[in-house]
Amino acid sequence: MKLLSSAEQAVVNKDFGEIWNTRMARNTIIFVPLLMVLLLPVMYLLMILFVPAGEMNGVDQMLQLLPREASYFSVKQGMFYIMTNVVCPMFFLMIPLMVSSVSAASSFVGEKERGTIQTLLLTPLSVKSIFKAKVLSCVFLSAIATGISFVVFACVITAGDLLLGMPFFLNWNWLVLVLFLAPGVTVFGVVFMVLVSGRSKSYMESFQTSGYIVLPLVLLFVGQFTGLFQLNALILLIIAVVLLVVDCLLWFVAARSFTPEKLLK
Predict the structure, then answer these.
(1) Which of 54, 143, 205, 250 makes the best surface tag, with the fewest CB within 10 Å?
(2) What sections of 51-126 are H helices per DSSP?
(3) 111-155 pLDDT, tens per residue?
Protein backbone atom coordinates (compact mmCIF):
# COMPACT_ATOMS: atom_id res chain seq x y z
CA MET A 1 0.00 0.00 0.00
CA LYS A 2 1.39 3.36 -1.03
CA LEU A 3 1.85 5.88 1.74
CA LEU A 4 0.96 8.77 -0.59
CA SER A 5 -1.03 8.99 -3.80
CA SER A 6 0.50 10.72 -6.81
CA ALA A 7 -1.55 13.85 -6.08
CA GLU A 8 -0.39 13.86 -2.46
CA GLN A 9 3.21 13.39 -3.60
CA ALA A 10 2.77 16.46 -5.80
CA VAL A 11 1.74 18.47 -2.72
CA VAL A 12 4.78 17.15 -0.85
CA ASN A 13 7.09 18.20 -3.70
CA LYS A 14 5.42 21.60 -3.89
CA ASP A 15 5.85 22.12 -0.14
CA PHE A 16 9.51 21.07 -0.30
CA GLY A 17 10.12 23.77 -2.90
CA GLU A 18 8.17 26.47 -1.06
CA ILE A 19 9.82 25.73 2.30
CA TRP A 20 13.26 25.80 0.70
CA ASN A 21 12.49 29.09 -1.06
CA THR A 22 11.50 30.73 2.25
CA ARG A 23 14.70 32.36 3.47
CA MET A 24 14.12 31.99 7.22
CA ALA A 25 13.05 28.36 6.87
CA ARG A 26 16.03 27.57 4.64
CA ASN A 27 18.47 29.29 7.00
CA THR A 28 17.03 27.41 9.98
CA ILE A 29 17.25 24.06 8.17
CA ILE A 30 20.89 24.70 7.26
CA PHE A 31 22.40 26.66 10.12
CA VAL A 32 20.72 25.15 13.21
CA PRO A 33 22.09 21.64 12.44
CA LEU A 34 25.50 23.09 11.51
CA LEU A 35 25.67 24.91 14.82
CA MET A 36 24.40 22.05 16.97
CA VAL A 37 26.26 19.06 15.54
CA LEU A 38 29.35 20.59 13.97
CA LEU A 39 30.47 24.01 15.19
CA LEU A 40 29.71 23.65 18.93
CA PRO A 41 31.07 20.06 19.29
CA VAL A 42 34.22 20.93 17.29
CA MET A 43 34.84 24.06 19.38
CA TYR A 44 34.35 22.08 22.58
CA LEU A 45 36.65 19.30 21.36
CA LEU A 46 39.38 21.79 20.42
CA MET A 47 39.07 23.42 23.84
CA ILE A 48 39.46 20.04 25.56
CA LEU A 49 42.46 19.13 23.39
CA PHE A 50 44.42 22.37 23.64
CA VAL A 51 43.40 24.15 26.86
CA PRO A 52 45.07 22.77 30.03
CA ALA A 53 42.48 21.26 32.36
CA GLY A 54 43.72 23.46 35.20
CA GLU A 55 42.76 26.61 33.26
CA MET A 56 39.14 25.55 32.77
CA ASN A 57 36.51 26.80 35.19
CA GLY A 58 34.02 24.41 36.77
CA VAL A 59 35.82 21.22 35.72
CA ASP A 60 35.43 19.57 39.12
CA GLN A 61 31.69 20.29 39.21
CA MET A 62 31.24 18.92 35.68
CA LEU A 63 33.18 15.74 36.44
CA GLN A 64 30.74 15.02 39.26
CA LEU A 65 28.16 14.34 36.52
CA LEU A 66 30.13 11.34 35.29
CA PRO A 67 28.33 8.01 35.81
CA ARG A 68 30.05 5.18 37.66
CA GLU A 69 31.03 3.34 34.45
CA ALA A 70 32.96 6.42 33.27
CA SER A 71 34.64 7.21 36.58
CA TYR A 72 38.01 5.87 35.37
CA PHE A 73 38.30 8.48 32.59
CA SER A 74 40.98 11.16 32.73
CA VAL A 75 39.90 14.80 33.10
CA LYS A 76 39.93 15.43 29.33
CA GLN A 77 38.14 12.16 28.59
CA GLY A 78 35.56 12.91 31.28
CA MET A 79 34.90 16.39 29.88
CA PHE A 80 34.39 14.95 26.41
CA TYR A 81 32.12 12.20 27.75
CA ILE A 82 29.93 14.82 29.46
CA MET A 83 29.76 16.87 26.27
CA THR A 84 28.78 13.80 24.25
CA ASN A 85 26.24 12.32 26.63
CA VAL A 86 24.89 15.25 28.64
CA VAL A 87 25.18 18.41 26.53
CA CYS A 88 24.94 17.20 22.93
CA PRO A 89 21.71 15.16 23.26
CA MET A 90 19.80 18.34 24.05
CA PHE A 91 21.56 20.19 21.23
CA PHE A 92 20.70 17.34 18.88
CA LEU A 93 16.99 17.33 19.78
CA MET A 94 16.81 21.01 18.89
CA ILE A 95 17.29 19.99 15.24
CA PRO A 96 14.11 17.94 14.66
CA LEU A 97 12.15 20.36 16.81
CA MET A 98 13.27 23.54 15.04
CA VAL A 99 13.30 22.09 11.51
CA SER A 100 9.85 20.55 11.86
CA SER A 101 8.25 23.62 13.43
CA VAL A 102 9.74 26.11 10.96
CA SER A 103 8.78 23.81 8.05
CA ALA A 104 5.22 23.53 9.34
CA ALA A 105 5.01 27.29 9.84
CA SER A 106 6.11 27.83 6.25
CA SER A 107 3.86 25.08 4.89
CA PHE A 108 0.63 25.91 6.72
CA VAL A 109 0.74 29.60 7.65
CA GLY A 110 2.90 30.49 4.65
CA GLU A 111 0.28 28.93 2.38
CA LYS A 112 -2.35 31.28 3.76
CA GLU A 113 0.00 34.24 3.67
CA ARG A 114 0.88 33.64 0.02
CA GLY A 115 -2.82 33.31 -0.83
CA THR A 116 -2.31 29.91 -2.45
CA ILE A 117 -4.47 27.94 -0.05
CA GLN A 118 -7.59 28.74 -2.11
CA THR A 119 -5.98 27.18 -5.21
CA LEU A 120 -5.03 24.10 -3.22
CA LEU A 121 -8.59 23.70 -1.94
CA LEU A 122 -9.92 23.78 -5.52
CA THR A 123 -7.88 20.71 -6.50
CA PRO A 124 -9.50 17.22 -6.48
CA LEU A 125 -7.66 16.46 -3.24
CA SER A 126 -9.78 16.23 -0.10
CA VAL A 127 -8.94 18.41 2.89
CA LYS A 128 -7.89 15.25 4.72
CA SER A 129 -5.42 14.38 1.94
CA ILE A 130 -4.04 17.93 1.88
CA PHE A 131 -3.50 17.79 5.65
CA LYS A 132 -1.79 14.40 5.41
CA ALA A 133 0.50 15.47 2.55
CA LYS A 134 1.51 18.74 4.19
CA VAL A 135 2.22 17.13 7.58
CA LEU A 136 4.25 14.34 6.01
CA SER A 137 6.24 16.77 3.88
CA CYS A 138 7.35 18.57 7.05
CA VAL A 139 8.06 15.27 8.82
CA PHE A 140 10.10 13.97 5.84
CA LEU A 141 12.11 17.18 5.64
CA SER A 142 12.86 17.13 9.36
CA ALA A 143 13.78 13.43 9.23
CA ILE A 144 16.24 14.06 6.38
CA ALA A 145 17.85 16.98 8.23
CA THR A 146 18.02 14.97 11.46
CA GLY A 147 19.52 11.91 9.74
CA ILE A 148 22.22 13.93 7.97
CA SER A 149 22.93 15.80 11.20
CA PHE A 150 23.44 12.57 13.12
CA VAL A 151 25.92 11.30 10.53
CA VAL A 152 27.91 14.55 10.80
CA PHE A 153 27.70 14.45 14.59
CA ALA A 154 28.86 10.81 14.66
CA CYS A 155 31.90 11.71 12.53
CA VAL A 156 32.87 14.59 14.86
CA ILE A 157 32.43 12.58 18.05
CA THR A 158 34.18 9.52 16.62
CA ALA A 159 37.14 11.72 15.72
CA GLY A 160 37.16 13.02 19.29
CA ASP A 161 36.96 9.49 20.70
CA LEU A 162 39.96 8.43 18.60
CA LEU A 163 42.01 11.50 19.53
CA LEU A 164 41.29 11.04 23.25
CA GLY A 165 41.56 7.23 23.24
CA MET A 166 37.96 6.68 24.32
CA PRO A 167 35.45 3.92 23.47
CA PHE A 168 32.97 4.48 20.64
CA PHE A 169 30.33 6.96 21.79
CA LEU A 170 27.18 5.19 20.55
CA ASN A 171 25.25 3.71 23.48
CA TRP A 172 21.64 2.82 24.34
CA ASN A 173 20.87 6.44 25.28
CA TRP A 174 21.79 7.66 21.82
CA LEU A 175 19.97 4.80 20.08
CA VAL A 176 16.73 5.54 21.95
CA LEU A 177 17.16 9.26 21.35
CA VAL A 178 17.73 8.91 17.59
CA LEU A 179 15.27 6.09 16.83
CA PHE A 180 12.37 7.02 19.12
CA LEU A 181 12.66 10.43 20.78
CA ALA A 182 13.76 12.44 17.73
CA PRO A 183 10.83 11.15 15.58
CA GLY A 184 8.45 11.94 18.43
CA VAL A 185 9.87 15.45 18.71
CA THR A 186 9.55 15.88 14.94
CA VAL A 187 5.86 14.99 14.83
CA PHE A 188 5.21 17.13 17.92
CA GLY A 189 6.81 20.16 16.27
CA VAL A 190 4.66 19.75 13.15
CA VAL A 191 1.27 19.14 14.78
CA PHE A 192 1.87 21.89 17.35
CA MET A 193 2.46 24.36 14.53
CA VAL A 194 -0.66 23.11 12.71
CA LEU A 195 -2.70 23.83 15.83
CA VAL A 196 -1.33 27.35 16.26
CA SER A 197 -1.44 28.12 12.52
CA GLY A 198 -5.17 28.80 12.69
CA ARG A 199 -4.52 31.65 15.14
CA SER A 200 -1.43 33.04 13.45
CA LYS A 201 -1.83 35.87 10.98
CA SER A 202 1.64 35.60 9.52
CA TYR A 203 4.51 33.19 9.09
CA MET A 204 6.70 35.27 11.41
CA GLU A 205 4.08 35.23 14.15
CA SER A 206 3.77 31.45 14.02
CA PHE A 207 7.54 31.05 13.95
CA GLN A 208 7.88 33.19 17.07
CA THR A 209 5.23 31.05 18.77
CA SER A 210 7.33 27.96 18.09
CA GLY A 211 9.85 29.30 20.60
CA TYR A 212 7.58 28.08 23.42
CA ILE A 213 8.01 24.41 22.46
CA VAL A 214 11.77 24.68 23.02
CA LEU A 215 11.17 25.30 26.73
CA PRO A 216 10.75 21.62 27.77
CA LEU A 217 14.09 20.79 26.15
CA VAL A 218 15.77 23.66 27.96
CA LEU A 219 14.35 22.42 31.28
CA LEU A 220 15.62 18.90 30.58
CA PHE A 221 19.05 20.31 29.78
CA VAL A 222 19.19 22.47 32.90
CA GLY A 223 17.92 19.67 35.15
CA GLN A 224 20.48 17.18 33.92
CA PHE A 225 23.39 19.62 33.74
CA THR A 226 22.80 20.81 37.30
CA GLY A 227 22.70 17.20 38.53
CA LEU A 228 19.01 17.37 39.47
CA PHE A 229 18.44 14.10 37.58
CA GLN A 230 20.24 11.80 35.16
CA LEU A 231 18.60 10.64 31.96
CA ASN A 232 19.23 7.02 30.96
CA ALA A 233 17.93 4.87 28.12
CA LEU A 234 14.87 3.70 30.06
CA ILE A 235 13.81 7.23 31.04
CA LEU A 236 14.38 8.45 27.48
CA LEU A 237 12.29 5.55 26.16
CA ILE A 238 9.45 6.37 28.58
CA ILE A 239 9.58 10.03 27.53
CA ALA A 240 9.53 8.95 23.88
CA VAL A 241 6.50 6.67 24.38
CA VAL A 242 4.59 9.41 26.25
CA LEU A 243 5.50 11.90 23.54
CA LEU A 244 4.33 9.55 20.77
CA VAL A 245 0.97 9.14 22.56
CA VAL A 246 0.70 12.93 22.85
CA ASP A 247 1.60 13.19 19.15
CA CYS A 248 -1.26 10.85 18.22
CA LEU A 249 -3.75 12.88 20.26
CA LEU A 250 -2.51 16.19 18.83
CA TRP A 251 -2.54 14.74 15.29
CA PHE A 252 -6.20 13.77 15.76
CA VAL A 253 -7.12 17.22 17.13
CA ALA A 254 -5.12 19.03 14.42
CA ALA A 255 -6.74 16.96 11.65
CA ARG A 256 -10.23 17.79 12.95
CA SER A 257 -9.39 21.49 13.17
CA PHE A 258 -7.99 21.55 9.61
CA THR A 259 -11.13 22.72 7.84
CA PRO A 260 -11.67 25.00 4.81
CA GLU A 261 -13.48 27.55 7.03
CA LYS A 262 -10.44 27.95 9.30
CA LEU A 263 -7.99 27.90 6.42
CA LEU A 264 -9.77 30.77 4.65
CA LYS A 265 -10.00 33.02 7.74
Answers:
(1) 54
(2) 59-63, 75-82, 88-104, 110-114, 117-121
(3) 777 777 777 777 888 888 888 998 999 999 999 999 999 999 999
